Amino acid sequence: MAKQAKNAISPTRSEDYPEWYQQVVKAADLAETSPVRGCMVIKPWGYAIWENIQRELDRRFKESGHRNAYFPLFIPMSYLQKEADHVEGFAKECAVVTHSRLEADDEGKLQPAGPLEEPLIVRPTSETIIGELFSKWVQSYRDLPLLINQWANVVRWEMRTRLFLRTAEFLWQEGHTVHATADEAMEETRKILDIYADFAEEFLAMPVITGEKTEAERFPGADVTYAIEAMMQDRKALQAGTSHFLGQNFAKSSQIKYLSAEGQEEYAWTTSWGVSTRLVGGLIMTHSDDDGLVLPPRIAPAHLVIIPVTPKEETRAAVLEYCQKLQKDLEAQPFLDGRVKVELDDRDIRGGEKTWGWVKKGIPVRVEVGPRDMEKNAVFVGRRDRAPKDKEAINRDEFVGGIGALLEEIQNNLLAKAKAFRDEHSREITSEADFVEFFTPKNREDPEIHAGFASVGFCCDPELEDKIAKEHKVTVRCIPNATADEEVPCIFTGKPGKRVVFAKSY
Amino acid sequence: MAKQAKNAISPTRSEDYPEWYQQVVKAADLAETSPVRGCMVIKPWGYAIWENIQRELDRRFKESGHRNAYFPLFIPMSYLQKEADHVEGFAKECAVVTHSRLEADDEGKLQPAGPLEEPLIVRPTSETIIGELFSKWVQSYRDLPLLINQWANVVRWEMRTRLFLRTAEFLWQEGHTVHATADEAMEETRKILDIYADFAEEFLAMPVITGEKTEAERFPGADVTYAIEAMMQDRKALQAGTSHFLGQNFAKSSQIKYLSAEGQEEYAWTTSWGVSTRLVGGLIMTHSDDDGLVLPPRIAPAHLVIIPVTPKEETRAAVLEYCQKLQKDLEAQPFLDGRVKVELDDRDIRGGEKTWGWVKKGIPVRVEVGPRDMEKNAVFVGRRDRAPKDKEAINRDEFVGGIGALLEEIQNNLLAKAKAFRDEHSREITSEADFVEFFTPKNREDPEIHAGFASVGFCCDPELEDKIAKEHKVTVRCIPNATADEEVPCIFTGKPGKRVVFAKSY
């Protein structure tokens, strides 16, 4: 049990945050890099988290009237060019399909053959292809609103990739909607933003700021981009989801028109919005500690593990039977809209290795049961939101009856802890000098650990924003919705400004 | 109501079966062709069927110990070449990615740029890339069996495509497993085949024959391929799912080895298996009639629709309220592992148009409620497994209480009808002359309507099989498992043979 003396993950967060992240992902067996540049493999424990994200978001999308559909993986090259900003944003990094088969050359080596008349792009996002189809689906005001979502893979040829956070291929959902009026499209854009924010807080226990992006960070082709922004434990911001009001830009480039009730032909208004497997990265970095992954119960693939402690052969069968009965009783307990999910780890390996394996996988509750616990009708319980050594004996039936409440308590604790961390590293800053001080690495022990979120008055001048980004490596994460109506003087220019959040970001 | 005099779909099955299929898909709004050659768009009603297929299969895979994961979309070109039969099978039709960005030329026209060192193939199936990863995941006998499934899109550059049945891009699941022994791998292969067959019968109400493929129809790289084969209404066979025993072929080409309990390094044994959106095509062709789609309740996106009949303005509000209450009560009724799913169609369009719209969409039960039904506390019920005009008045509360049983009755009827159809068009044939007679088009009114399934003794000689395929356009669909032990003389050569099923196929 030598490992209990130190932490399970090396390096620790304070020693080397980026490497700590990679090691947490590895130790929890969530994902790994693949032989294909920039593409990751999502392993079962990581994919089960993504399935839980999908299930809950899908439920919320359907409840709010959206329906799923599926559109082609490929986009004709010419489509990308229809919207000027859009092509600018996506042409620089995309997978281009140019051939339709392989042929062996004289030396028996395969070569691309069957060149295509028009190259195809593997979708980096689907506005252009979906726009083309929507222009046929939408004819009359009776066809509106059209509320569609797609679960899919997309590809952006990123040069610097990191598991979950930035990969060439990633999984996501992309919503695409069409409305008769600007107001309705804007209402949809903000409704989705709220769904994202509520989901992040309620399920991922990840507090987020909702707000509008400045011009520099807007989606290519959007009039307005909203985002949810979360603070990671290195105090950098993670953009965890975006919702775009596209105005009539794509309606015009794709000719999405409808006949109004008054018989007029009108251009429609569209929105698009998405979250991706990046959410898993945000989840990891919000809660995990130097012992590995920490999972909020509502998103965990399993809620608790039972570990039979059977040092002596003669009590083995009885302990195992006791554990199986315990599992059955726990699995009968309700949690969320389902039941408590229980793993029984009866693998024939050392107990310490087993326990630390589950700590590193982030399972919310560990239950150890040995012959003496069994005699006392007790279980020995460890919680992932407390130190690994901090375990307590609980009466078995009390534990079973209270498991739902315990899981909710852990969920709430993790959210409260993440909120407290964010608040602790958020400052209201009123002068340029304080701003520079706040974001200057020399004032902190580790230059890789950042200052946090600075809430400041800013005139939102794009050139000034660009200059600040270059000088201090920080950007405007958003103009928070909560204070969007405030008028505050710009701390750099003294001009009238908005309240914005500056931070370093992923 | 002119439409009620004739059928809703034109042409009918007997007039032009392939065109009837396209029109059913269109009338039910299931899918459409896209501007990208060979790629389809799956529309919400069609996608909801696929989601139901996914949900139930996923449940069965997980229940039998499989876990989901996600692997890269791209496969390096050289990987495909590792297994000789495999590259032979897939190199001829695949999407090849050769560039990583687009650049505007002097005329502002986009051109592929950033050529890749090694071209990438969009996965047509993932044995080679998953094999590469499994070779790292599998080290010891303790790591086995490894039971993984992936839900994904794949691309095969098909020249002749048809919605759902054969498309360049399609959605599927692909299972990939690794085992310590040949027996265990074979057991897995057959277990999955049974899952497919049970699912097809129990949910799609599509009876299937399970059996082994002959060499000619084997998966490229497999030692044994099993399939489920269903009969469509043109009496052609549809291969609806396959399960492959891959022997040690991919273990050797990908170096999947494990250390046995005895400390020996051994090559593992692998399997792979898949079903795709093609199942939706099979579903359509098994049950639909000349009025459009017919959906078995267990797979239908919604089980019933309530259509308020409100000819007079003054009773409109009361009828609508009555219908809303009816919807609520129906939605409280259990069906399968959930509840009855109800649509209330209060659109302001003609009643006939509404009714026929739902007939064409295949909804299992239609309920019409007018002011007089309301007074009598009755509902007017039409079932999709009966003629559209065949409706009956039922006491409202009796109907609500009996809805679960009614849906099961419809489900069972559709399966029984499909089984009867298949049996009616299946023959045991004992001579070459009868075989030729059975498959010769001149003996039937419409050469496009085929003879059905011929059960014959066959020596399984590949050259003879090829000759028969060319002469009669029929192939061995499978060697049915149910009679695999029988020794029967070949009707062509008199040599000892197996009992096989010959048919025309999709």
Automatic annotation (TrEMBL), chains A, B:
Keyword entries, A-Z: Aminoacyl-tRNA synthetase, ATP-binding, Cytoplasm, Ligase, Nucleotide-binding, Protein biosynthesis
Catalytic activity: tRNA(Pro) + L-proline + ATP = L-prolyl-tRNA(Pro) + AMP + diphosphate
PROSITE patterns assigned: AA_TRNA_LIGASE_II (PS50862)
One annotated Gene Ontology cellular component of this protein: cytoplasm
Example GO BP: prolyl-tRNA aminoacylation
TM spans (from-to): none
Top-rank taxon: Bacteria
Localization of this protein: Cytoplasm
Main location class: cytoplasm
Assigned EC number: 6.1.1.15
Domain Aminoacyl-transfer RNA synthetases class-II family profile intervals: 46-296
GO molecular-function terms, A-Z: ATP binding; proline-tRNA ligase activity
NCBIfam families documented for this protein: proS_fam_I
Function as written in the Swiss-Prot or TrEMBL entry: Catalyzes the attachment of proline to tRNA(Pro) in a two-step reaction: proline is first activated by ATP to form Pro-AMP and then transferred to the acceptor end of tRNA(Pro).
Family statement: Belongs to the class-II aminoacyl-tRNA synthetase family. ProS type 3 subfamily.
Entry domain remark: Consists of three domains: the N-terminal catalytic domain, the anticodon-binding domain and the C-terminal extension.
Record note on quaternary structure: Homodimer.
Protein name, entry field: Proline--tRNA ligase
The organism of origin for this protein: Coraliomargarita sinensis
The organism's taxonomic lineage, starting at the top: Bacteria, Pseudomonadati, Verrucomicrobiota, Opitutia, Puniceicoccales
